[in-house]
Amino acid sequence: MTDHTNTVAVQDPSSSILGLAQDVLELTQDMTKYFQANNIAAPTFALSSQDPPDTPDYRRLHASLKSRLEDLLHLIDGPSKWLRAFCCTGYDLGALQIALDFDFFELVPASGDIALEDLADKAELDVDRTGRVVRQLMTYRIFDELRPRMISHSSTSLAMRQDEDLRSVVHYSLDEMLKAAADCNVSLKANPHESHQNLNPFVTRHGVGIFEFYKNNPDKARRFAKAMAGLRKMDRHLDYLLKDGFDWSAIKGTVVDCGGGNGHISKSLAQLYPDLNFVVQDSNAEMLSEGKESLPDSLRDRVKYSQHSFFDPQPVTDAAAFLIRQCTHNWADRDVVTIFKSFVPGLEGSSPDTPLLINDIIIPEPGKWPRHQERIVRQVDMVMLVNCGAKQRNEAEFAALLKEADSRYVIRNTFDNGPLGLLEVYLERS
């Protein structure tokens, strides 16, 4: 198999369409060989086709191939045509939001088809706009029309029908989140030099912060919870860095999982490392209760739950490690400094070898990653800007906030070769 893992992320401006096409052919052949060698069916548009494997080898091939394909498509379109298509995607998303709000995905049967008129009748929407919406989505292979005026599922729309968590990811993104994003310019013009939990585009659009919004809208809160479950399923491979990047077998004792929600990460680590115990801390009593209820009997002696805010001084001492995962990105810099300060009492009461593990996106330097991979983490950064007045950070920004919290903080190891990074931080002692 050809090694494309060290490909420079930024393509040479003189890259030719023929050279890119030749790369695409070679990489596609490599991908086909990978499927064959691993007895994996190549993806098709058939309803029975499965998602490609989520393995490191496939992700490397996918990254290289997608980078070439995107560059090739950009070149053959040219700047004007590409921009026209890009700026019109909002209308495509509008069609998708209609399909979600009017339950198209559930109303179209899993097998067989439904007459357009019947779909409109069941959706309680006129036939004209039902047809226009569903046919717009068909241009993205969402739904199908194999017989005139008979609507059936494509593999993509069927996945939305069968997986409520996936459907929730898409629906919440196009409802409260996209509406907030549409007010970015209004919010930033009103507050060009400040943003935080109570000052951001989400507040501009909805009148309250995101946490208060879900407290006031329980139906949307339930959908948001399902969406987060869906994202965890889609991003399951991100857990490998936390599990493999740090040598968990080298420590003994109790790991404190701060802001750990229902403890799904602690449960996973506890199953892998029987010598470790875990304390899951979160300020949300409902999340803690959910975690306790779903805890297997085999882990009840080793995984405990405690209500605690990571803004308050850490009460646990003599810990083997402190972990904070995908939490700092929800907060502005001043709040993150407070969070990092709160760990100091716990670290001072533990061994000098006790690490603070910060498991979050580490934004790469521009051009270090392939564009489509960098785009994903920068999209998440924009999500934080819109919804929390917060941000994703690069390593230097993390280091500066740690030093502001306590000058004794030092980053000893950084793992940033994937969408979710890991900082291994220690509190130096004199």
TrEMBL record:
O-methyltransferase C-terminal domain: from which residue to which, for each copy?
198-405
Q: Which UniProt keywords apply?
A: Methyltransferase, S-adenosyl-L-methionine, Transferase
Isomerase in keyword set? no
Q: Which GO terms describe its biological process?
A: methylation
PROSITE patterns, alphabetized: SAM_OMT_II (PS51683)
Question: Would the keyword Transferase be found if you checked this record's keyword annotation?
Answer: yes
- Alphabetized GO MF terms: O-methyltransferase activity
Q: Which InterPro entries match?
A: COMT-like (IPR016461), COMT_C (IPR001077), SAM-dependent_MTases_sf (IPR029063), WH-like_DNA-bd_sf (IPR036388), WH_DNA-bd_sf (IPR036390)
Q: Where is the chain membrane-spanning?
A: none
Matching entries from PANTHER family are given as: PUTATIVE (AFU_ORTHOLOGUE AFUA_4G14580)-RELATED, STERIGMATOCYSTIN 8-O-METHYLTRANSFERASE
Any idea what this protein is called? O-methyltransferase
- Organism, scientific name: Colletotrichum gloeosporioides (strain Cg-14)
